[in-house]
């Protein structure tokens, strides 16, 4: 108990923030709503060189630069007049050819998988819009001036902290092309406005000045501390949020974590709980719930959790807002904050990603 209260003290009295978070990962988290607003405006103001309707819309990007593509595909695939392909590989599918528009997303512009996939798409005749701060991706685009455009995103962020800059311009451009309904930008503007308003409110509620007793993200960090985090999404959309939670726990909190989504997990992972998993740290299960769940899905989740047992260390996080965009970004936002607070409890620098840097350096 003494340990718990001293940890609670740590999150409530962050006097030594410069030691816990020397590169200020919490700053961009707090300012995320403004980042999203700025990114949306930048996408709305970007002049497309061609308004030809593509037959396929694809996004390629890795890690923090890949999440925006997953979000776009899951959010709008059912509503977009053309298929949306989210790609995270050295290659692109055969459908990304002459009639395709590819968003090539790499914050640094130097990620080799994204460069290779983009080059392949360009050679196959695709149109490409790069979202990047520059790097080799901008140079690659300059070699194909008739079919490429570069939307330069602001520098100075960790890629994973620039999610707004890497997602909202794609949404605005997809809407500008009329792929999300004839209304263009107006077709999604209401969802964006609702989302930004909600994120602004959440930024205040989850802020580091708000004590544990009233701060859901700090409570979640305590809940996860010392455990093996497992994050389940209650729908496909929440599955993308669960993936983002996992990767933020990996990169910010420096912990191994896992994620899965309903209903697929009921066909495999549900059995994995059976053996008690000797040798693994105590699991801490977070289930991301949303209004988008059907009655049947809610029933399925209840039965699953009953089978897993009442004594399981678990918590539910309820997505907020009315639109799917608000719902998914609210679930993502709580996880982003929680992963930074968990880094403080783990006493690791949430910005430092030395293993990733080492790997990239070794690959040259
Ligand atoms: C780092 C991060 C990583 C990078 C990934 C790809 O903050 O989130 O997952 O996003 O290594 O690098 P970029 O984004 O530069 O293409």
List keywords for this structure.
364 residues, alpha/beta, Rossmann fold, five-stranded parallel sheet, 15 helices, globular, disordered N terminus, binds fructose -6-phosphate
Provide a short characterization of the protein structure:
The protein is 48% helix and 13% strand. It is α/β, with parallel strands linked by helices and 364 residues long.
Task: Give a description of the structure.
It is a single chain. The protein has 364 residues and is an alpha/beta fold. It folds into two domains: 2-21 and 206-346, Rossmann fold; 29-197, Glucose-6-phosphate isomerase like protein, domain 1 (Rossmann fold, 3-Layer(aba) Sandwich). Helices cover 48% and strands 13% of the residues. It has 15 helices and nine strands. It has helices spanning 2-12, 17-20, 26-30, 32-45, 67-76, 112-123, 135-142, 163-176, 186-205, 216-224, 236-251, 269-272, 295-308, 324-346, 354-363, and strands at residues 56-60, 84-87, 100-106, 127-132, 148-152, 228-233, 258-261, 283-289, 314-318. The strands form two sheets. It has a five-stranded parallel β-sheet, sandwiched between helices. A four-stranded parallel β-sheet has the order 7-6-8-9, covered by helices on one side. Helix 5 (67-76) packs parallel to helix 8 (163-176) and helix 5 runs antiparallel to helix 11 (236-251). The radius of gyration is 21 Å and the shape is globular. The site of fructose -6-phosphate (F6R) has 15 residues, from loops.
């Amino acid at each position: 108990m003494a340990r718990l209260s001293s940890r609670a003290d740590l999150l409530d009295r962050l006097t030594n923030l410069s030691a816990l978070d020397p590169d200020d990962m919490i700053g961009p988290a707090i300012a995320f709503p403004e980042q999203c607003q700025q990114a949306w405006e930048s996408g709305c103001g970007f002049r497309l060189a061609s308004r030809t309707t593509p037959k396929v819309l694809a996004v390629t990007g890795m890690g923090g630069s890949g999440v925006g593509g997953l979000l776009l595909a899951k959010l709008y695939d059912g509503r977009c007049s053309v298929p949306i392909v989210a790609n995270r590989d050295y290659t692109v599918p055969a459908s990304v050819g002459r009639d395709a528009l590819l968003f090539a997303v790499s914050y640094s512009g130097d990620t080799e998988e994204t460069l290779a996939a983009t080059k392949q798409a360009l050679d196959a005749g695709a149109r490409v819009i790069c979202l990047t701060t520059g790097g080799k991706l901008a140079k690659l685009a300059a070699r194909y001036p008739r079919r490429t455009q570069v939307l330069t995103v602001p520098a100075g962020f960790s890629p994973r902290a620039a999610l707004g800059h890497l997602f909202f311009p794609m949404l605005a451009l997809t809407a500008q092309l009329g792929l999300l309904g004839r209304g263009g930008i107006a077709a999604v503007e209401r969802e964006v406005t609702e989302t930004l308003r909600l994120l602004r409110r959440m930024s205040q509620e989850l802020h580091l000045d708000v004590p544990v007793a009233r701060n859901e993200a700090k409570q979640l960090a305590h809940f996860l501390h010392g455990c093996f985090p497992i994050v389940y999404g209650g729908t496909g959309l929440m599955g993308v949020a669960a993936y983002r939670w996992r990767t933020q726990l990996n990169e910010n909190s420096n912990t191994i974590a896992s994620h899965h989504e309903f209903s697929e997990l009921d066909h495999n992972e549900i059995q994995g709980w059976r053996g008690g998993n000797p040798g693994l740290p105590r699991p801490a299960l977070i289930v991301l719930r949303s209004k988008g769940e059907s009655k049947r899905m809610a029933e399925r989740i209840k039965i699953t959790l009953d089978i897993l047992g009442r004594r399981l260390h678990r918590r539910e996080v309820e997505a907020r807002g009315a639109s799917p965009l608000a719902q998914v970004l609210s679930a993502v936002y709580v996880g982003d904050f929680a992963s930074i607070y968990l880094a403080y409890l783990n006493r690791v620098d949430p910005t430092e990603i030395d293993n990733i840097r080492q790997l990239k350096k070794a690959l040259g």
